[in-house]
Design brief:
Layout lengths: L1 E5 L13 E5 L3 H11 L3 H5 L10 E5 L2 E2 L15 E6 L5
Parallel strand pairs: 1-5
Antiparallel strand pairs: 1-2, 3-4, 3-5
Length: about 90
């Protein structure tokens, strides 16, 4: 099952400057684990010290925010896209 993951610019140094990579998995959690297996160091950027996804990073499966689906247990299928989008604050 090949899932395309869109990598934000701040994390591309960890993915050999690639803005998109393909990994496998049946859930968002499996895709992120596969991503860490391929590109060491991403997990600590995506998860906090309690093992939870960081609040200031948004994850979308095919443009759907996983917070409104099943979170990390959101299912993915071959050809889906997972976008990792850092939140932007300003004022």
């Amino acid at each position: 099952m090949s899932i395309k993951v869109r990598i934000p610019t701040p994390l591309q140094a960890l993915t050999q400057n690639q803005s998109e990579v393909e990994v496998t998995g049946k859930t968002v959690a499996e895709v992120l684990a596969s991503l860490e297996g391929k590109f060491k160091g991403l997990k600590e950027r995506l998860y906090d010290e309690k093992g939870q996804l960081r609040r200031f990073i948004n994850f979308y499966v095919n443009d759907e925010d996983i917070r409104f689906l099943k979170g990390e247990q959101t299912s993915v299928k071959d050809g889906d896209e997972l976008s990792i989008v850092p939140a932007i604050a300003g004022g």
